[in-house]
């Protein structure tokens, strides 16, 4: 197996979107436990911004992208679960999905059903797996639960809105505009809170008759964490899973007791994506929900991969809704 010439996004230093460079690369043959994938579509996620800014450190020069779909071009000698020619999708480390072709660990790659397009596969893996573990493991949502979900009109949010309704929950979602409120409601959100104009704590208390919610799902981080604790009923759960506004500052865990014996967890999709005993059933469940039409994947933005810097600007400026993908060619 020979070296392949390809294009990719590379970053020599951390910083703003301008650090992203469109470069020529050589892609070697896969090692024994690796596969070489020709990408058809690539997902954009906020975790890519964290890596670009250095919030999540990585060696430099570095690569970006945690999610993509494509076709296996070749496999290493130890790889048995996929073969050359298979349609696949993945979400997980190491970063490097912002490329036309890449070599990567075979452990995080799953077969993509023929009924799911490459674009949809790239748009749903990281966000869909995230929703799966948030609602079934981080906190197991039950029928009758009331949930506060921040960024309800984002990629994770729109999948979560649908999944929560399947579980029989009442959903309160925060959004940044009237347009996003309408979108979230169209996907199942019962009550939207326009956080730019409303106090989401007061509104949540009003909507729950002062009781609070069973669980808060928060990917915003610093700007919403402490207030979110005030939205939770006694013995409820706080799930913080992202840092869009910056990392949550250190806290005195005693505050959880003061606010009602609250529980707190900080999960990450990598824990699940890199354990095949979890990844395979979670992926199968996600694929089944999409193929049955119970979960619709909203792809609202498409960019050429070489325009990754602009896509990052739009994501950080909250101009995007639903899922965003890159087209590598």
From TrEMBL:
User: What Pfam families does the annotation carry?
Assistant: ADH_N, ADH_zinc_N
A single MF term (Gene Ontology): quinone reductase (NADPH) activity
Report the superkingdom from the record: Bacteria
Q: Name one GO cellular component term.
A: cytosol
Sequence segments annotated as region (Disordered): 310-329
Q: Does the keyword NADP feature in the UniProt annotation?
A: yes
**Record has Oxidoreductase as a keyword:** yes
**Protein name in the entry:** Quinone oxidoreductase
